[in-house]
Amino acid sequence: MILRAVFWASLGGLAWTHVGYPLAAAALAGSRPRPVRRAGVTPSVTLIVPAHDEEDVIGGRLENLLGLDYPPELLEIVVGSDASTDRTDELVQEVAARESRVRLMRCPRGGKLATINRLHTEGSGEVLAFTDANTRWEPDALRKLVRSFADDDVAYVTGRLELREADGTNREGAYWRYELRLREAESALGSITGGNGAIYAVRRSDFVAQPYGQDAALPALLSERGRRAVYDPEAVAYEKPARDLEDEYARKARMFRWSWYHLLAARPARGAGALYRLEWFSHRTLRYSTGLLHLALLGASAGLAGRNSVYRFALAAQLAGLSLAAAGRLRAPVPGAALAYYYSLVTWATVVGLMRYLRGGVPGTWERAEGTR
Predict the structure, then answer these.
(1) Which terminal Cβ of the chain has fewer Cβ within 10 Å, N or C?
(2) Rounded to whole angstroms, how far apart are CA atoms 151 and 345?
(3) Which domain, by its residues, includes 262?
(4) Do 190 and 276 touch, CB atoms closer than 8 A?
(5) How far is CA 226 from CA 156, 206, 272, 367, in A?
(6) Residue 166 lies in a domain
(7) How far is C-alpha 266 from the geometric centre of its chain's CA atoms?
(8) Do β-strands 136-137 and 127-130 pair in parallel, antiparallel, or remain unpaired?
């Protein structure tokens, strides 16, 4: 009886978070959308770039931001150097010497989140925008990002991150396209459950410094306060993709460590409306639990396989999926193998992230993903 309950609960959770919820969100967004009023507003903006040992990219990042199609008198750029030990500070100061819109703020080593929390009081912009040192923005990205602030209900806007090779080739995978479509549906329903640190903006009056990170924690907190966090796919940023799937796995494991911290310590979205709580449970709680659900499903299937053909088929299907992932790991030219391998790595990263969080909490500092520079 217990094994059957575990089997159907884990299967149901996986089916809902990966298939049922995205389809339901898209259908509901299409039938009862909550539009965002967008207009050509140009509020003053303080754009914050946290950086630690980014000498390889910081010069190009600043030139990219200074070249944005935005009124120069309404934009100031603050680079928060998280105790950089290379030439990052020197390069920023060189740009600041000839461009008054750029400022360097040197911070004690504390990590990306601590740097953001320290710098959010800097500058005078009505809007705080944030990005990473290795990101690039399209020239109109900031204009597109802030236009949603014409809607008084909107407190937070995130843009679209594209993954491009050095030659400009788009490398967005199937999983990332799927995630962005789901983010668009959530935005149409009211608020997204997660943003992107590469490109987002917040009204200064709505920003909240907190310990759980920004990508998921801030949209959830704002939703609890009755404010909207939305997605504008036309505000485009781009980065180099990770060098390989193993690098992507390491990055995901670090991210999920913070995700579990936020989920278990903050218990997010408790004070939000019923629809947003359902979104959060479906997209975040269940998604972070994917690895645990797969392990539970595999164990229950193995324990029940001798009882009837349904459980035997389920076990065979899971073993076939693992075999396809193994083929992907070996770079075998088998249709679907690369996607299966990617999915298995991301799924296992949720488990590793949880184990690392339970064993040692979250690290204060962050490590760069070298392949993305």
Answers:
(1) N
(2) 40
(3) 1-33+244-373
(4) yes
(5) 12, 11, 7, 34
(6) yes
(7) 18
(8) unpaired
